[in-house]
């Protein structure tokens, strides 16, 4: 039987506020365990929450970017469940009156643009972090667990999509585009490796043409876009085999095992009634006026789709524009173009050598000792014939190493190409005079030997000659 795949994604985004959602504790990542805590985020008796206004505003900003309707009236609820990293035994979240409802996100997974509906964007507090010791690192075979409450109470946006995706590639494109929007808004660093941007996928299969959805399986523990795509591909194969045998798919939560390349059963999937939601009695309802909404709408920056379109107009092809936006280096690109750099050349350097440097060094772009003006200077020196492609890479390495501007580095490392025509002609004449046999063979039709003579000139000039200019001079003198 042929099945239709139905996928929806729940994405959690930790916000970059300085303090937590309902208390004044700091939110720095990497602090000593259980140091950024207080009676509120530890759930001690008598401690009362106070909402973080900035987190509420940023959640509405994402809702506006996703073309959601912003609720004029919204409330927080208690989501009740027991787990060791939830000290209150409930999580302050939102239920039937979220901040943002009914938006959409356009994606392109290679088969044209498709629209994915957004069910809701709501705000809640994060839980603590459990580290299970021994075995696979999961609770079922751990010999013990460590709990760190530093993350408990950090503002957490949840973005719930409609089940509008039908392939792992579409799911990956959705997560990637949503992350790009979050980064453009500046509300989160969206680091998958640190858990500040994480997603759960709901997937089901049904016979093609069927109106009723199949049993939903929630897949967790995916910490990269690649993991998301691989986990969903595995689930499609697994569920197809189960259905083809005539068996039933149980509604459950499964965990992705990256090393094994498979999902493993975790627990039966809860329904919303299992959480016994009720309105949070310690918080007043939220009310959003039109003036506040207008201010937030005006502050929404250029979003990734609009930026890609602008880059295509400036001369980049669609693939280059998409790669540049995904890289997160768009600010540097815009600065370089304003400073006079050719857009295509600037994009090539950013998505090539500069991205490679960031990956090797394991640093954020904010740590780059390079601005748009310096990138424009490097591009101009290449276009002006002052630097060869090889020398330009050495110059960039020096700039990224903190040695100064491109020109300063080029001069200090003696990498500037010879632009004096007389000096270049003299070097060419010397090489031609030293290789009469090769020159004669070139005149006899062996044009491939021109490259040999170009190499001799480059060696004689310490690699500082313009190879294109040298090639032309040799061909002219040898009659090639």
Question: Which features characterize this protein?
Answer:
single chain, 480 residues, alpha+beta, Arc Repressor Mutant, subunit A, 9-stranded mixed beta sheet, 3-stranded antiparallel beta sheet, 15 helices, 20% strand, elongated
Please explain how this structure is put together.
- The protein has 480 residues and is an alpha+beta fold.
- It has 3 domains: 3-295, no CATH class; 302-412, no CATH class; 421-478, Arc Repressor Mutant, subunit A.
- 39% of the residues lie in helices and 20% in strands.
- The chain contains 15 helices and 16 strands.
- The strands form 4 sheets. It has a 9-stranded mixed sheet with strand order 2-6-7-10-1-11-12-13-14.
- Helix 6 packs parallel to helix 8 (343-361) and helix 7 (330-338) packs antiparallel against helix 8 (343-361).
- The termini are far apart.
């Amino acid at each position: 039987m042929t099945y239709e795949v139905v996928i929806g994604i729940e994405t959690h985004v930790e916000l970059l506020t300085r303090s937590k959602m309902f208390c004044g504790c700091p939110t720095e990542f990497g602090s000593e365990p259980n140091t950024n805590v207080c009676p509120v985020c530890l759930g001690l008796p008598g401690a009362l929450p106070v909402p973080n206004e900035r987190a509420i505003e940023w959640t509405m900003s994402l809702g506006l970017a996703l073309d959601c309707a912003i609720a004029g009236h919204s409330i927080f609820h208690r989501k009740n469940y027991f787990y060791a990293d939830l000290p209150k035994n409930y999580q302050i979240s939102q239920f039937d009156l979220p901040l943002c409802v009914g938006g959409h996100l356009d994606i392109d997974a290679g088969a044209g643009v498709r629209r994915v509906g957004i069910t809701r964007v709501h705000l809640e507090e994060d839980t603590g972090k459990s580290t299970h010791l021994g075995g696979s690192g999961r609770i079922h075979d751990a010999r013990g667990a460590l709990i760190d409450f530093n993350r408990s109470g950090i503002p957490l946006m949840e973005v719930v999509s409609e089940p509008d995706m039908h392939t792992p590639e579409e799911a990956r494109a959705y997560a990637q585009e949503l992350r790009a929007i979050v980064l453009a808004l500046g509300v989160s660093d969206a680091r998958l490796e640190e858990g500040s941007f994480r997603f759960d996928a709901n997937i089901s299969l049904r016979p093609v043409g069927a109106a009723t959805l199949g049993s939903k399986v929630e897949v967790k523990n995916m910490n990269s876009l690649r993991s998301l795509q691989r986990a969903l591909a595995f689930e499609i194969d697994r569920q197809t085999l189960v259905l083809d045998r005539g068996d039933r798919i149980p509604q459950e939560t499964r965990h992705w095992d990256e090393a094994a390349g498979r999902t493993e059963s975790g627990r039966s999937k809860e329904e919303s009634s299992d959480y016994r939601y009720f309105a949070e009695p310690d918080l007043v309802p939220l009310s959003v006026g039109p003036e506040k909404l207008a201010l937030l709408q005006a502050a929404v920056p250029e979003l990734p789709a609009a930026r890609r379109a602008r880059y295509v107009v400036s001369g980049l092809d669609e693939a280059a524009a998409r790669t540049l936006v995904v890289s997160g280096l768009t600010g540097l690109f815009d600065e370089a173009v304003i400073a006079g750099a050719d857009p295509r050349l600037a994009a090539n350097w950013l998505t090539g050598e500069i991205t490679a440097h960031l990956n090797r060094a394991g640093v954020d772009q904010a740590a780059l000792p390079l601005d748009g003006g310096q990138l424009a200077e490097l591009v101009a020196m290449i276009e002006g014939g002052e630097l060869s492609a090889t020398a330009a890479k050495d110059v960039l390495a020096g700039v990224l190493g903190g040695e100064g501007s491109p020109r300063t580095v080029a001069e200090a490392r003696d990498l500037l190409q010879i632009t004096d025509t007389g000096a270049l002609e003299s070097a060419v004449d010397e090489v031609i005079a030293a290789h009469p046999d090769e020159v004669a063979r070139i005149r006899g039709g062996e044009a491939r030997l021109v490259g040999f003579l170009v190499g001799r000139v480059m060696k004689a000039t310490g690699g500082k000659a313009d190879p294109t200019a040298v090639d032309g001079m040799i061909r002219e003198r040898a009659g090639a």
